[in-house]
Amino acid sequence: MLSKKTQYAFRALAHLALEYGKGPVKISSISIEQRIPLKFLENILVELKNAGMLESKKGKGGGYVLKTSPKKIDLATVIRIINGPIALLPCVSLNFYEKCKDCDERTCGMRKMMLIARDATLKVLEKKTLEDIIKE
Amino acid sequence: MLSKKTQYAFRALAHLALEYGKGPVKISSISIEQRIPLKFLENILVELKNAGMLESKKGKGGGYVLKTSPKKIDLATVIRIINGPIALLPCVSLNFYEKCKDCDERTCGMRKMMLIARDATLKVLEKKTLEDIIKE
DNA sequence: TAATATCCTACAAAATTAGTAGGGATTTAT
DNA sequence: ATAAATCCCTACTAATTTTGTAGGATATTA
């Protein structure tokens, strides 16, 4: 399951997607309109910014904007930044890979199945974007 | 990601699948061979039993057996028993559904995307079984 | 220089996960 | 009947992760 933090991230990003092209949006207004705790949201937006998904501007008139079009921001990328791995096991994760102790990867049946599951999930999450979320 | 407990569960079930038809297997021998903490494994096996996946026998010569053929035990069922929901959001879970507060389910774009992702994942996890895990 | 806003570090509370302890209940063998 | 073997139940503890909060530093604008 996605953490609450990740759900907040998606709400904030959807908000920014709707304002895309209209200039910076303040954290505080996202916080209020999306009902997300202000300071928690700050952390989230900084993380997204550090990951290269957002740009920020300080001072009056400042705020956050999406760095690229909502069409180009896919859901898998967002999840990886805030939530972590998408795969069900570390040993089948593309971006957070960790070898498992006691199994031989070439023959491990569990791993094979989890690879298939991962691919099926990724095929969706890498194709769908913020655009898909906001379009009614 | 699957919890460590769930990974233990799969290892224990794969073990039982390999012994399927050969009589009960003791917790202690699963614990040793699969390197799973004994008391923790006890909890896991009782849960699987209470969920109807295993049968147990007490006393000498006792232990656990799969209640049905490894072919009939799919991965989604195991995950739901030990790990919980497979969906990425409570509002798109079939077995652990919870309504989300601030969204209209008919129009929520996030929900639509997560439904598609869930279906893709489930299609794999409901089709693959313990048999698939143990067959080399 | 004052106001506005993001950014940084650190902490704290709550929830979940992982594992342990100790003994009770049931079955089998002697 | 009794002892041994084995699962089963309740409760606790420890570790980790999640969900925040606090307070101020830094940058920008007017």
Q: Write down the overall mean pLDDT of chain A.
A: 97
Q: What is the tally of beta strands of chain A? A: 2
Low-pLDDT residue spans of chain A: none
Protein structure class of chain A: mainly alpha
Descriptive tags:
49% helix; elongated; DNA-binding; 136 residues; two-stranded antiparallel ribbon; mainly alpha; 2 strands; homodimer
Polypeptide structure, described:
The structure is a homodimer. Chain A has about 140 residues and is mainly alpha-helical. The first copy, chain A, has six helices and two strands, in the order H-H-H-E-E-H-H-H. The first copy, chain A, has helices at about 5-20, 25-35, 40-50, 75-80, 110-125, 130-135, and strands spanning about 55, 65. In chain A, strand 1 and strand 2 (about 65) form a beta hairpin. Chain A has a two-stranded antiparallel sheet with strand order 1-2. In chain A, helix 1 crosses helix 3 and helix 2 (about 25-35) crosses helix 3. Chain A is elongated. The interface of A and B includes residues 102, 124 and 132 of A. Chain A binds a DNA duplex (30 and 30 nucleotides) through helix 3.
Give a quick summary of the entry:
Helix content of chain A is 49%, strand content 6%. By secondary structure, chain A is mainly alpha-helical. In chain A, a hairpin with a 5-residue loop joins strand 1 and strand 2.
List the SSEs and their pairings.
The structure is a homodimer of 136-residue chains.
Chain A: H1 4-18, H2 27-34, H3 38-50, E1 54-57, E2 63-66, H4 75-82, H5 109-125, H6 130-134
Antiparallel strand pairs in A: 1-2
Helix pairs in contact in A: 1-3, 2-3
Chain A binds a DNA duplex (30 and 30 nucleotides) through α3.
